[in-house]
Design a protein that fits this description.
Succinyl-CoA_synth-like, alpha/beta, seven-stranded mixed beta sheet, ATP-binding, D-amino Acid Aminotransferase, Chain A, domain 1, globular, 1092 residues, ATP-citrate synthase, Citrate_synthase
């Protein structure tokens, strides 16, 4: 959504801060906000002018015509304001059809003035530029300003001048006010442009001898420009329309949406309603709401919302649990229904999103049953079969009534089932599985022969068919009537390998001689080649760092498919339009600021370039060319017969709904000739008329389908075309968004342009106009397929369309990764892991999400327990591990490991090399005694050998007792590291049998020699065995296995690595040079010279 209304206070704050004008703007920042929590004494302290000036008070909640509604208190003192508010604050009020509570008020200074000092000014955006409206009589009784006001259109990329304002707008204004008003209006317009306003109205604007006063103001800004205007906007709160509360759940989903590349929307209409929706797709979500309202469910419709743009499993889980949480707060006497619907996805992995929903259903299964919720599911798209399977499975395992349907069922049929208007099939027809379409039994790698003769009426276009026509000298170039042919070549901007592979698979299926993608452009890497499949063969496509090189080396390219982000789409598109070879550009990104889009449109019109998008999936011409992810995966391409041309062309705003049209048209006619999704923004690069007129002029098209939408007036141009005879082919049309007129407050639907600003922009008005003009208009979207079939059958009956003979579709090899995801193949893994999983939304250590690891405050020792032992160890065990790491961290520069690290560092080696040099010295003689000590002491203890017997046995065999002895420390000079560990172990361990045994051995060895103490390695070794055996987390066999496989030496390696790194950094910091050992510290013992 782009244009969002802001509060009057926010709008005035922007104006006072940033307007640049010579006019004296008065009462800057003189406003005070009042809510139920307001302390008027404190308010007066913060705004002293409240005590000295006469005041105006009014609600600031997006309410129009407040004066006529008696909602403005005028010429009051502060006490009078308080009295006035007593009868209004927190009172329920009707404004039009909306009933809401007045809870937010604005107090401003009262401005005494004459009627002739009031003016009206408004600026609003349109496709061709920004209109400035001015009327010399402002105020409450201004009336129909559209009819009265003077208008001045400032074209895209043009500036407003004071001379133009005076000549065209201020003709009825007194001479002494013209200069002030002209300066203010120009400053206001510049502010409007700089801060990305889309609508700005001031009524009245008062001009007195003291200056300019902005009394009442209403404004909308382009929320998509946040990344450009954040510094000036700050953090904006967008208030809900009057009559609808702002719910924290809406804010939560909006926050998820802001952090995601996907689209997540939620609007609560009636939280007590029994009909809830969770719909995928901006267009589909509107269609489902329409159908619910058409079937009488408007009063029970609880929410509007959508999720789209390939959200992750975690994101759909968060979205679904929010819906389920809201649903299960209050029971309904008739139970509740949840409609999980959607059109056929183009690129969203349905199984992945459904797994998130299934998780939420499992989490809420108790409340779902308690509230008697029945769930209806209908979806199609990539991997939808697996998604439907898991959804059906959760219904069986939980006992929740879940009815699951795929593409064989009309998109909105589940609404009738949910509301009791149609029966629920006991066994829905089984949809064909992806595997049935894609696995090729033939070993041939050649391009398949065409699977169907072209439509008999198809225009046999040659290679140059898609070039733009040359215009007469001085006139702008004429846009191409044929956008795509079988020879069309494209460049893809962005590293979208999946989309490109989908295009190549489509090309192969359509029997194209060559791939439709010539190259890719990706500015973030150097020039290189990227591997793709062409049928069975592997091919390489060039990837260029800059557009200029790609264009120069591929002059045959005439189409750009831009996957640039919303931040870079404008610049990359403007750059592309410099190259005359380009005649069509598809812009996929959603959320491009409208001002930038309008500049793109203006440049494209000047260059004769057709823009598809922004905010689109693209378009498709069966048998010829498809844009990116249009049409979904190959199973849908083949199921909807998009590999060969039909006779029906369509145009839609929605990408998901365009794929649904592919499905409907393929089931009711001979198929699609061409289809374009122009995009959901308010100003799409090309409009319905552009494409409908192209289809009218294309011989292969015999009937046209247009899926219109609430918002805008473009459909009326189609009405005029039909009435005038310019459009003679049958047009089947339906405008979605009919539910909007039934809502008591304004609802912004998923598409940015799906909002009616006047009665003529409603879907109901446009459907009526289209029907009156002669288009075939169904009663609802439910009947769209029936009307399309009726018109098609009539054309076949008249001989206008002669259906061609169908031939079994060709096959394309399935990608290994996709076949595996569908469960069609299995392969042994190259290696297995059981400690960590990074594939999901959140990193998991031994089954514990990383957020839980931090919440539990288990520390490094606990984390090590998860990754090494796959256990959540007791806190004392985690603490012991950390103590072991601390006491083994370093033992000075003289030991062999540190020495090696230092020598290596001084030789100029890097950190990793130096650390490795030190680690390689660890073994039985240095640092590796932990495992050996643990094994020796455990074996002796477990065999029942007395400590003396153990010592004597080792002496007799000539073996050292590992972990016994120290070069410096002795019984008289104890090692404090051992003492610290011993105190902790004795205090916290449940049992220390092996440690006690080792201490008895120490008594025997130190009696012979005082330095034969249990050293730190030996102590850690035996104490760790006690820990593993007695903490309750391991069996005896598991404990012994960890000792056997060398886990304990890992403690020394990990701890000592900290010291080695410290020595490396120390040497670098001290800038020590190459180390050479001194001669006097080397004993040279050479053999005497011997002569033979």
């Amino acid at each position: 959504m782009s244009a969002k209304a802001i509060s009057e206070q926010t709008g005035k704050e922007f104006l006072y801060k940033y307007i640049c004008t010579s006019a004296a703007v008065q009462n800057r920042f003189h406003y005070a906000n009042v809510t139920t929590e307001t302390d008027f004494d404190r308010l007066a302290q913060d705004h002293p002018w409240l005590l000295t000036e006469r005041l105006v008070v009014k609600p600031d909640q997006l309410i129009k015509r407040r004066g006529k509604l008696g909602l403005v208190g005028v010429n009051l003192d502060l006490k009078g304001v308080q009295e006035w508010l007593k009868t209004r604050l927190m009172r329920e009020t009707m404004v039009g059809k909306a009933k809401g509570i007045l809870k937010n008020f604005l107090i401003e200074p009262f401005v005494a003035h004459k009627q002739e000092e009031e003016f009206y000014v408004c600026i609003y955006a349109t496709r061709e530029g920004d209109y400035v409206l001015f009327h010399h009589e402002g105020g409450v009784d201004v009336g129909d300003v559209d009819a009265k006001a003077s208008k001045l259109l400032v074209g895209v990329d043009e500036k407003l001048t004071e001379d133009a304002v005076k000549k065209q707008l201020l003709t009825h204004v007194a001479a002494d006010k013209k200069e002030v008003l002209a300066s203010f209006i120009v400053g206001l317009f510049n502010l409007y442009q700089d801060l990305y306003f889309t609508y700005l109205e001031i009524n009245p604007l008062v001009v007195t001898k003291d200056g300019v006063f902005v009394l009442d103001m209403a404004a909308k800004i382009d929320a998509t420009a946040d990344y450009l205007c954040k510094a000036k906007w700050g953090d904006i709160e967008f208030p809900p329309p009057f009559g609808r509360e702002a719910y924290p759940e809406e804010a939560y989903i909006a926050d998820l949406d802001a952090k995601s590349g996907a689209s997540l929307k939620l609007t609560l209409l009636n939280p007590r309603g029994r009909i809830w929706t969770m719909v995928a797709g901006g267009g589909a979500s509107v269609v489902y709401s329409d159908t619910i309202c058409d079937l009488g469910g408007v009063d029970e419709l609880a929410n509007y919302g959508e999720y789209s743009g390939a959200p992750s499993e975690q994101q759909t889980y968060d979205y679904a649990k929010t819906i389920l949480s809201l649903m299960t707060r209050e029971k309904h006497p008739d139970g509740k229904v949840l409609i999980i619907g959607g059109s056929i996805a183009n690129f969203t992995n349905v199984a992945a999103t459904f797994k998130g929903i299934v998780r939420a259903i499992r989490d809420y299964q108790g409340p779902i049953k308690e509230h008697e919720i029945t769930i209806f599911v209908r979806r199609g798209g990539p991997n939808y079969q697996e998604g439907l399977r898991v959804m059906g499975e959760v219904g069986k395992t939980t006992g929740i009534p879940i009815h699951v349907f795929g593409t064989e069922t009309h998109m909105t049929a589940i609404v009738g089932m949910a509301l009791g208007h149609r029966p629920i099939p006991k066994e829905p027809p089984a949809a064909a599985h992806t595997a049935n379409f894609l696995l090729n039994s033939s070993a041939s790698s050649s391009t398949p022969a065409s699977s169907r003769t072209a439509s008999f009426s198809e225009n046999k276009a040659g290679p140059g068919a898609s070039a733009a026509k040359k215009a007469k000298s001085g006139a702008p170039p004429v846009k191409a009537s044929t956008l795509f042919s079988k020879q069309t070549k494209s460049i893809v901007w962005g590293m979208q390998t999946r989309a490109v592979q989908g295009m190549l698979d489509f090309d192969y299926t359509c029997s194209r001689d060559e791939p439709s993608v010539s190259a890719m452009v990706y500015p973030f890497t150097g020039d290189h080649k990227q591997k793709f499949y062409w049928g069975h063969k592997e091919i390489l496509l060039p990837v260029y760092k800059n557009m200029g090189d790609a264009m120069k080396k591929h002059p045959e390219v005439d189409v750009l498919i831009s996957f640039a982000s919303l931040r870079s789409a404008f610049d990359s598109t403007m750059e592309t339009m410099q190259y005359p070879q380009i005649h069509t550009i598809a812009i996929i990104a959603e959320g491009i600021p409208e001002a930038q889009t309008r500049k793109i449109i203006k440049r494209a019109d000047e260059k004769g370039i057709t823009i598809i998008g922004p905010a689109t999936v693209g378009g498709i011409k069966p048998g010829c060319f498809k844009i990116g992810n249009t049409g979904g995966m190959l199973d849908n391409i083949l199921a909807s017969k998009l590999y060969r041309p039909g006779s029906v062309a369509y145009v839609s705003r929605s990408g998901g709904m365009s794929n649904e049209l592919n499905n409907i048209i393929s089931r009711t006619t001979d198929g699609v000739y061409e289809g374009v999704a122009i995009g959901g923004d308010r100003y799409p690069g090309s409009i319905y008329t552009d494409h409908v007129l192209r289809y009218q002029d294309t011989p292969g098209v015999e009937m046209i389908v247009m899926l219109g939408e609430i918002g805008g007036t473009e459909e009326y141009t189609i009405c005029q075309g039909i009435k005038s005879g310019r459009i003679t082919k049958p047009v089947v049309s339906w405008c979605i968004g009919t539910c909007a007129t039934m809502f008591s407050s304004e609802v912004q639907f998923g598409h940015a342009g799906a909002c009616a600003n006047q009665a003529s922009e409603t879907a109901v008005a446009k459907n009526l106009a289209l029907k009156e003009a002669g288009a075939f208009v169904p009663k609802s979207f439910d009947e769209l397929g029936d009307v399309i079939k009726s018109v098609y059958d009539d054309l076949v009956g008249k001989g206008v369309i002669v259906p061609a003979m169908e031939v079994p579709p060709p096959t394309v090899p399935m990608d290994y990764s996709w076949a595996r995801e569908l469960g069609l193949i299995r392969k042994p893994a190259s290696f297995m892991t059981s400690i960590c999983d990074e594939r999901g939304q959140e990193l998991i250590y031994a089954g514990m999400p990383i957020t839980e690891v931090f919440k539990s405050e288990m520390g490094l020792g606990g984390t090590l327990g998860l990754l090494w032992f796959q256990r959540r160890l007791p806190s004392y065990a985690a603490k012991f591990i950390e103590m072991c790491l601390m006491v083994t961290a370093d033992h000075g520069p003289a030991v062999s490991g540190a020495h090696n690290t230092i020598v290596c560092a001084r030789a100029g080696k890097d950190l990793i090399s130096s650390l490795t040099s030190g680690l390689l010295t660890i073994g039985d003689r240095f640092g590796g005694a932990l495992d050996a000590a643990a094994k020796q002491f455990s074996k002796a203890f477990d065999s029942g050998m007395l400590p003396m017997e153990f010592v004597n046995k080792m002496k007799k065999e000539g073996n050292l007792i590992m972990g016994i002895g120290h070069r410096v420390k002795s019984i008289n000079n104890p090692d404090m590291r051992v003492q610290i560990l011993k105190d902790f172990v004795k205090k916290t361990f449940p049992s220390t049998q092996l440690l006690d045994y080792a201490m008895d051995v120490e008594k025997i060895t130190t009696a012979k020699k005082p330095n034969l103490i249990l050293n730190v390695d030996g102590f850690i070794g035996v104490a760790f065995v006690d820990l593993l055996r007695n903490c309750g987390g391991f069996t005896r066999d598991e404990a012994d296995e960890f000792v056997e496989i060398g886990a304990l030496n890992g403690i020394f390696v990990l701890g000592r690595s900290m010291g080695f790194i410290g020595h490396y950094l120390d040497q670098k910091r001290l800038k020590q040079g190459l180390y050479r050992h001194p001669w006097d510290d080397i004993s040279y013992v050479l053999p005497e010279h011997m002569s033979m």
